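Following up on my earlier thread - several people asked me to post the actual chain instead of describing it. Fair enough. Here it is, all 506 residues.
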Amino acid sequence: MVGTSKRTKASRSSLAEHLQSDFGSDLSLVTGTKATAPARLVSWPHGLPVMIGYGVIDFVTLSLSGSFILYLQLGIVPSFEILRSATRSACLAFTFLYPAMVLLSCASQDLYRTPRDRGAFEESLMVVRAIILATIVLVLFVFVFDVQGISRVSVLMLAALSVAALSGWRYLKRRLIIHRTLQGIGVSRVAIVGTGRIAKGFATFLADNPQFGCEVCGFLAVEPSSDRRVLGFVSDLRKVALEQFLDELFLVPPIDREIVKQLVLETRQLRMSLKVIPDMYDGHGWRAPLHAIGGFPVMQLNSPPIPGIGVAAKRLFDVLISATGLLLTLPILGILAILVRLDSPGPAFYSAHRVGYKARKFRCWKLRTMFVDADRRKDMLRKENGREGPFFKIKNDPRVTRVGHWLRKFSLDELPQLWNVLWGEMSMVGPRPHPVDDFERYSVEHLRRLDVKPGLTGLWQVTARQNPSFETNLALDLEYIENWSPWLDLEILFRSIPEVLTGKGE
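Reply from S.P.:
Thanks for posting it. Predicted structure:
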């Protein structure tokens, strides 16, 4: 079982030739008893420093792209003197705001982790999505602040150049890594401790993905195995490591903790890298990230519905959209408020407590669409509820005024909620906020829809607005939460426009 095959000898010979080209004729450094393993081959860095490095490359690339477009459009090169002149807004937008927004958008899609098993097309598509979102924000910035010197053509040119630049350097990086690994540069010879399903699956994955730079020599068995790739038992580690010139050892569960401690000591003496694949819990931890808390390694099996960087990007998007919307609709709101006051007695605006993120109560604003005694009559009408579950709505509600019916039909009564979005109590997209008395009828499972901020519009509004089932509403809300992305927010916003214009509200 431990015998050396011809293929093993050939591999060892080619590795020795590679080492001799690096160290000359003196191979005692890697074959002597004092240093029993080969010197460390080149390995690619991982972790936070690489992520920061990728972010810096993106930012510099985008700033240079913006400077190039400014030069073509205005005939200027951004500099300190330019930033103090009349064109400083254009320079800031192209060389700072736009790159920052692209970085936030890329980070929200997890682009800076750049797993090597991600395809080039998939990664380029993610870059395109990030650029589209940042370009929309740039257009809003130019419109709101009336930035001079920036045309639609220059914005489109910047977006196209950014897509080419970011996708281009990522593609070249990928090709360089694959080329180096195929040439044997940076390739580590590894063995896997264990012969179970996970161990074999991991070996197959490494063999099918040479860009990871790992050549699997075989397995070390904990128990007797008939697999021809088994090089020996765990107790044979030293002999196998010397014969196979192993650089790394992977431990795949389940493994007895005493064996792990033994392997830690032996690999340290052999100057080998030892890596442990944590328990996958029947697949639930397959792609779970690892990090440390106070020196304790932690595997995150479930993550927040929207990652921290995604929350920041979503909030910035909400502020820009809501501020722009309030500025544009202010005259319309004034006219509608007058119509509400003329139609029925009472204030033009109505506010009531709603339940939002993590069950926090906030005052939600609307144009008044009902008579002033509507809240007192709600309990009397609850038996006529047209919705299923803890959600109250009736068809042809007698409390609704004439103007109110028209406002609801086109969702114009919800325009003041742009203020709630700007204030941070709501988001442009998310589950709709429910009144406190409806919230008190929630079951425990219903509380999951409160894991994100409530929205002005949502997935339910654009897919099943007329469906009376609260369970359908809940299922769509949870689908949105679990599959959130900036691209999904944009899709829902664009699909909401025809829903409003065609008057499908109630």
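The chain has three domains: 6-35+186-275, 48-181, 308-501. That should answer part of your original question.
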